[in-house]
């Protein structure tokens, strides 16, 4: 398993696309820092009331993390969807499995290698966005504690790991193209469901909230981000914080049971990927 994990990580690192992604990520952090610096410099101490300043500060940090999560999710999907199907289609899996290596070890190795690399990348973006906000945000610096940051970071890491597990399942069952389309559609549907649930909570429409929750059960990626914002901004029990969340916050708070469900979702997806490869006629 560890051999496949190392091989998987090495394959991604040595590809030219990895360097492109790294450079584009640095460019994203640069432009986010540029916007944060100039926006923070325009706000003086007495120019905004407490509510308006709180709204803008959470929006800037939430916006940075939201688009970082979007970038990470796309990277997780596109780096995983072909990790099994391409090997099968090109018959490159035959020499690997001809060695004393079980099929489930091959899948687990892919998962460990991809997840490990994405955890490092996710940590880089999370730390980069939060450092920018805290160091050069000026009067728009979000008021967060170290405990909140650690909790949010842990939840932030769950999303790419679960995406990798789900992508490996589709990669084990379908072609690379079909897997990619399915995963992107599931991720987009999850985002739409999250916005429906939050909008329903704002206008107090229970049917919209229920629809959003049902969509989250189909794919819980957006629920993880919403729970992360709750941990970061501590808005669940603070009316003032609740009023300053904006579009990147959570009026309808995902429960802890949803986080447990998301983790089980990833475990089941990975188990089904292992089972699919183990029973597939290669």
From TrEMBL:
Sequence intervals crossing the membrane: 17-40, 60-85, 106-132, 152-172, 184-201, 258-277
Domain of life: Bacteria
Entry-linked Pfam families: ABC2_membrane_2
Keywords: Membrane, Transmembrane, Transmembrane helix
The keyword Membrane is annotated on this UniProt entry: yes
Protein name (record): ABC-type transport system involved in multi-copper enzyme maturation permease subunit
